[in-house]
Here is the input.
Amino acid sequence: MARLFYLQVMEYELYQTKANDNRVMLVTEPPPRGLIYDRNGVVLADNRPIHSLTVIPERAASLPELKAALSPIVDISEEDWNEYESKLKEYRRPYQSITLKSQLSDDEWSKVSVDLYKLDGVQVEAQLTRYYPYGEAFAHAIGYVGRITSRDLERVDRMAYQGALFIGKTGVEEYYESTLFGKPGISKVEVNARGRIMSEIERQNPTPGKDLHLYMDARLQQYAYDLLGNYKGAVVAIDPNNGGVLAMVSKPGFDPNLFVRGISVDQYAELRDDKRLPLFNRALRGGYPPASTIKPFMGLAGLEYGFSSWSETYYARGYYQINPNGRRYRDWKRGGHGWIDLERSIIESVDTYYYQLAHKMGITPIHTFLSKFGYGQSSILDLNGASKGLLPSNEWKKARYKEPWYPGDSVNVGIGQGFMVATPIQIATANAAMAARGHMYYPRMVNEVDNAPATFEGNEGVEHEIVLKDQRNWERMVRAMEKVITDARGTGRRLQGTEYTIAGKTGTGQVFSLADDQEYDADSLDKRLHDHALFIGFAPAEKPKIAVFAIFENGGSSSKPADLTKALFDAYLYDDYPQEYDYFEEQRR
Here is the structure.
């Protein structure tokens, strides 16, 4: 009787608490992730329901016993078991379930459900998982989510992510993780002695993540990806009136859905070892010589600093020499172009004009002027991982090579070669600034967050004005770029015949240097040594709505990116897409 009194009265609160701990459990419910839409309401990142096999370790058998019990029922990979074991060692709320295998098939779900009564601590939970309906063409721009790792938990609120399966790893998914994730919910549930949930006592619903509406046009993105054909390369289209990224393609791509549920070792090895580098984001990180696409900007720099004028003429031979007996820097046209002026140098893409201009200017004015257009900077506002490329300077070369800057170095930079390296997003940004006549918007992906305009911290660096000493030079340079298309000797004359005006500039980026007496013979070279083919353009030239940069790696002729750009202009300006892209129209919300 004394012992009964002691337990029931004196120790009542202690054992009542222990009983409640056994009977009542807190369950964290991850919030539905916000959706990602294109500019027309097409869903680019969706949520789909799945059933996952989860375990409450405090209720379950030991790991060896659990393996022995589950192995005959459902196929669980060693990788899943290792992941489960590592999560056991991480911090979590008591009685919080751990996902052992996500996305059970209907057959697996049925088999497990039949035997659940004898599997202590094991349950099947309905969960939402990320799904990317359009796959590889959007992988590098939208990014993907993946399983949360211990490293991921170091940069987020651990308590908020208890019970969550996924976290943004790349692209928009990574940058806007805190916006897309939402706020988790908590349920207080009653369980039986085996850990089965019997009833819900109290519930705080999760707050869904916010939806993102991009500037991107899904049809334009897919069309650009397809137009690259079998070539590696990148395409970036920007609205010069606001900096919105209409398309950002890196090819080849990959299926981002592979990473959502946990990619297998073999699948990852296949992607990692692919010589075409499908995991590499060429649009943000690809380093290329900007080649002749830099010439309009070099021309403006020469005007700005008084090293050239629109009226001054220059006799363009087939080569340029700093010293009479020195190295010959050759023009693409072996016989030269004869007497030309600045406008004609743009139309015919005269290398020797820019050799002599860069030699006169030196690297310091070139570096100062080109940096205003975003070269040498990571300028995109809402994506991580963009490379800064390389806008060389005298100080850079001294630090890197312990050598001074030589006049020949400037000559090479004058045609976008030599030490200079730019990324597609940088070249596209500069092109959009030219289209906007110096009103430069830094590119951005997201237009609205839950129907409210997207904002950027401090709003600094979002846009700025590039002011020239003579603002009329913007229009004159744009007219010169128009004549690249309309002039009989323009390097982009193949694009003639449109109802709208195009301003553009072709480019051919050398992969390796030729000796003075060496001829470039594409047929005798390995494909990987072929020149890169580049093109920048915007339309309509007088009031641009779209600015495009395209590069075909080892594409040889600049006709390929020029034709691609014209096709994108037709599609975007006139809503003139091939019929096979009509399925995007059906997906609009």
